[in-house]
């Protein structure tokens, strides 16, 4: 994908963010009494002369499936610094999170709120490809603080599946 704000998944290409959001609403309406985790995560892989970043929007209907899509960005240089790479991954996830406006959340809430007594819930999270083991452990405080300062829940490995599993699968 060449446009920074186009998304794809296994069934559809070149989706605008508004198309993605429409798909999210459709997915919520299918089972509005469920618990949902709306997660955003980015992973990257260095290739020869470039670094590929894949950002994921993942809507998990807890215990009952998921819907997701991806955005690909290719930087025409090798990003070898772990700090720079993780910082860029975090920034790309923050950028996607900022697309979800108050109006978007109001629309999602309007779908789920009538089912609150039946357990309906929505959590919004950014998943970071960092963890307590390995070279990224020194970046946990800095990166999670960036997410928390936005009022969004931050998840790290092993709980950051949108970045470390879903997005990771497509960086190769």
Shape: globular
Overall pLDDT level: 96
Residue runs with pLDDT of under 50 for 5 or more positions:
none
The chain-level structural class is: alpha/beta
Q: Counting H and I runs of at least 4 residues, what is the number of helices?
A: 5
Helix content: 25-40%
List the helices and strands and how they pair.
Elements: H1 17-30, E1 35-47, E2 50-61, E3 66-75, H2 82-99, H3 102-112, E4 121-127, H4 140-148, E5 153-155, H5 161-167
Helix pairs in contact: 1-3
Give structural notes:
It contains five helices and five strands; from the N terminus they run αβββααβαβα. It has a five-stranded mixed β-sheet with strand order 3-2-1-4-5, with helices on both faces. Helix 1 runs parallel beside helix 3.
